[in-house]
Amino acid sequence: MRFALARPLLCDDAMSMPRPICALIVTVAIGCSPGSPTEIDPFVQSGKADGLPDRLRKLDDHKLHVDEPSDLAFANGKLYTVSDAHSKIYEIDDDGDVKDEIDIQGNDLEAIAVDDDGEFLVADESRAKIWHIDGDGNRHDPIEVEDAEDGNSGIEGLTFTEDGHLLVGKEKDPSRIIELDRHGVQLANDKVHFSSDLSALTYNPDDKHVYALSDEEHSLYRLDSHWDVDTAWKLPIKHPEGVAFDGSIVYIASDSEERLYLFELD
Question: Which of 32, 43, 171, 184 is deepest in the core (most CB within 10 A)?
Fold first, then answer.
């Protein structure tokens, strides 16, 4: 039901038009904006990517009714974002509308994840601290992340892997992927060489790969277990700052555009 609204609204506006013209308007409207590709082939693809989906197909985009959305997380059938303009967690739908919100304490919120117990983890970038947040917005059990305290170049991404480890993405100077166990103990701390920055991380349970997003390079990267790139795509999006998967559907949020983009990976 992701696109049920677009067709009736357009055809209602075009009731006086012949049916073929109305259908043409609908077809154009649910595609991409002028000059934006509907299908995106990878600009990097290694032999390790054989057999994996390698084409992004744009499905839709909508105004995201959240100021400065800075990350996305999908869990238990729901899509969430945080804003670095407000101290809130937002539940949003595919149309970019806010369905619910939770007030939390914190500033400069730049990353969100959801653990196996359904609790949120939210990162305070400027303090290199990750807070557990319960359903009422109460924060507890902070995690201090070594090598991530870097003012406005600190934590930008959070995601859990299949084994329950937490991956932390440090934005730049240099970009890093830091791996923590279930107790917050650091297991690995690796510099990123494939991009000048990291703006988000997510784990895709369908193909069991971690994906990284770059704001500065407008790119989405699928990584292998050594954080090397096996596939990469250039995105027609300004300042992509959040990414999450729901099966083959890829959600990407733009900070500056305040838009939610939907792609399919096939």
Answer: 171
Q: Is residue 169 packed enough to be buried (19+ CB in 10 Å), middle (13-18) or exposed (0-12)? A: buried
Say how far apart CA 214 and CA 45 lie, in whole Å.
Answer: 17
How many Å apart are CA 115 and CA 17, to the nearest integer?
51
What's the length of the chain? 266
Local structure of residue 236 (DSSP, 8 states): S
pLDDT score at 30: 35
Contacts of 228 (CB under 8 A, 6+ apart): 46, 194
pLDDT tens by residue, 80-93: 999 878 889 999 99
Residues 99 and 130 in one domain: yes
Number of folded domains that form the chain: 2
Task: Please tell me whether residues 6 and 59 are part of one structural domain.
Answer: no
Task: Please give the single-letter amino acid code of residue 153.
Answer: S
Q: Are residues 21 and 112 in the same domain?
A: no
Q: What's residue 151's pLDDT?
A: 62
182 vs 116: CA distance, rounded Å: 11
Q: Measured between alpha carbons, how far is 141 from 91 in angstroms, rounded to an integer?
A: 23
Distance between CA atoms of residues 262 and 251, nearest Å: 5
Separation between Cα atoms, residue 145 and residue 170, nearest integer Å: 10
pTM for this prediction: 0.85
Give every residue of the chain whose pLDDT is below 70, as ranges: 1-36, 150-152
Same domain, 12 and 115: no
Cβ atoms 244, 202 nearer than 8 A: yes
Q: Which two tokens stand for residue 58?
A: 């744009």
Domain that includes residue 245, residue range: 39-265
**Judgement on whether residues 25 and 142 belong to the same structural domain of the protein:** no
Position 11 scores a pLDDT of 36
Alpha-carbon distance 256 to 189, whole Å? 30
Residues 128, 217 within the same domain? yes
